[in-house]
Amino acid sequence: MKLHGYFRSSASYRVRIALNLKGLSADHWPHHLRKGEQRDPAYLAINPQGLVPTLQDDGGVILTQSLAIIEWLDETHPEPPLLPGDPLQRAKIRAFAQVIACDTHPVQNLKVLARLRELGQGDAVVTEWAAWANREGLSACEALIAHESGPFCYGAGPTLADLCLVPQLANARRFGVDLAAYPRLLRSEAAAKELKAFADAAPERQPDAE
Amino acid sequence: MKLHGYFRSSASYRVRIALNLKGLSADHWPHHLRKGEQRDPAYLAINPQGLVPTLQDDGGVILTQSLAIIEWLDETHPEPPLLPGDPLQRAKIRAFAQVIACDTHPVQNLKVLARLRELGQGDAVVTEWAAWANREGLSACEALIAHESGPFCYGAGPTLADLCLVPQLANARRFGVDLAAYPRLLRSEAAAKELKAFADAAPERQPDAE
Questions:
Q1: Contacts of B90 in chain A (CB under 8 A)
Q2: Percent of chain B with pLDDT over 70
Q3: pLDDT, tens digit, for every residue of B65-118?
Q4: Which of A118, A165, B66, B209 is most buried as measured by Cβ atoms within 10 A of its Cβ?
Q5: How distant is the Cα of B7 from the closest Cα of chain A, in angstroms?
Q6: Distance between B149 CA and the closest CA of chain A, angstroms
Q7: What count of Cα atoms within 13 Å lies in the side-chain half-sphere of residue A71?
Q8: What is the CATH number of the domain that holds B122?
Q9: Do A72 and B88 touch (CB under 8 A)?
């Protein structure tokens, strides 16, 4: 398998964790987002959004969108499960993941921040925009799991929720968000970071890290 | 069941279509987003994001995030299925849905557009921002299904992809996007609009429509 990604892309980071948890290896094909390599025509032919990640398996299967890739991995390589069997718990975990993957990350991604700069907004305003998007999302996530026992987001082991949380917290730190308001999220992050699958997926451990 | 929503919310519209396709009825509880009713403390207690939709079933189950709600409906009320059984097809359909639900709609939602106005951007710039987000997402969607036979996005019947597409096209029209560039998407929309489940879910048919 090939994983087209970028060391700092939090969506790629989610998939790297999933591959590691499943014990699957993939060749990492970096696309330098700040240099615009994701808009190369050869890459657009496999991912028309020009976003990372894209997963290509050895049989020619091409998959895009991190949550869709992760659920595919979970359905085709069920152990260890990233979603439980109970439909209600699955829905809660997916909702938490979507707060991050739908309402948080896309509002602070490189493309949106670049467009704000094109509108004449300066660095301080752009960084505060990204921090705002992170605060909004993380506040909701903190409330969603306030009464979950943990130590992971939903229970004693990692799920799709943790795969989204840990990379998003890395983004939040880059944008200077004060994370002290999110003790429950930090507790889940600490539990996740004990696992090699999470540690090995970290941006600074990737071959294209700068 | 109660569906907390808003007639013009495209995320609520997705869930309305799903309920109709499954033959389920729900009491519609409108929250007037432009008046800020979604930030009422009683509502925030069940949906800490202050977004719609939220689905409450009669047993006290509270579900948020439209895609998570729709997959829960599909898992608990399997007929007719909104996702096929084959993992690869499921992944492709989920990816299409996520292009819309992650990368398109949240970038043009009311909250983001309000923040652009707070930064001093005028109506024309704000509308063009929303149109841009729609063009980016719809162009990718058009490419993703260019070689799918149809008439729906993926095959002969509606799936999660169509539940996301039809409401997003309504948004695109509101922001003045020229849809002539997306003939394959329009073909799926035409097929979907023949179905009562889609027609009955349209914004203008809702009790809170203005």
A1: 71-72, 75
A2: 100
A3: 999 999 999 999 999 999 999 999 999 999 999 999 999 999 999 999 999 999
A4: B66
A5: 20
A6: 18
A7: 25
A8: 1.20.1050.10
A9: yes
pLDDT at B210: 87
Based on the domain organization, do B138 and B70 belong to the same domain?
no
Considering only alpha carbons, which residue of chain A is nearest residue B122? A119
Residue in A62, A65, A148 to test binding to B, most B beta-carbons within 10 Å: A65
**Which of B32, B63, B80 marks a domain boundary?**
B80
Contact A61 B125 (CB under 8 A): no
For residue B64, what are the domain limits? 2-80
* Domain match, B91 and B189 both: yes
Among A68, A112, A129, beta carbon nearest to B94: A68
Cα–Cα distance list, A100 to A76, A120, B29, B156 (Å): 24, 27, 25, 33
Q: Tokens 């490189």 sit at which residue?
A: A110
Higher-confidence position of A57 and B107: B107
Contact A132 B115 (CB under 8 A): yes
Cα→Cα distances A104→A67, A164, B112, B173, Å: 14, 11, 11, 25
Over the stretch A100-121, which tens digit does the pLDDT of each residue have?
Answer: 999 999 999 999 999 999 999 9
Q: Do A103 and B99 touch (CB under 8 A)?
A: no
Instruction: Pick out chain B residues at pLDDT < 70.
Output: none
3-state SS assignment for residue A8: coil
How many distinct structural domains can be found in chain A? Answer: 2
| Shortest distance, CA B189 to any CA of chain A (angstroms) | 21
State whether ipTM is beyond 0.85: yes
Under DSSP, is residue A7 helix (H, G, I), strand (E, B) or coil?
A: coil
User: Tokens for A80?
Assistant: 């260890």
Query: With contacts defined as CB-CB under 8 Å, which chain A residues touch B105?
Result: 102
- The answer to whether B24 touches B37, Cβ cutoff 8 Å, is no
The answer to whether residues A71 and A164 belong to one domain is no
pLDDT in tens, A174-197: 999 999 999 999 999 999 999 999
Nearest Cα of chain B lies from the Cα of A210 at a distance, in angstroms, of 26
CA distance A113 to chain B (A): 11
Mark yes or no for CB contact A98/B65 under 8 Å: yes
Q: Does residue B95 share a domain with residue B178?
A: yes
Q: Are residues A68 and A109 in the same domain?
A: no
Q: What percent of chain A has pLDDT over 70?
A: 100
Is residue A171 left, alpha or beta, with left meaning phi > 0 and alpha meaning psi from -120 to 50? alpha
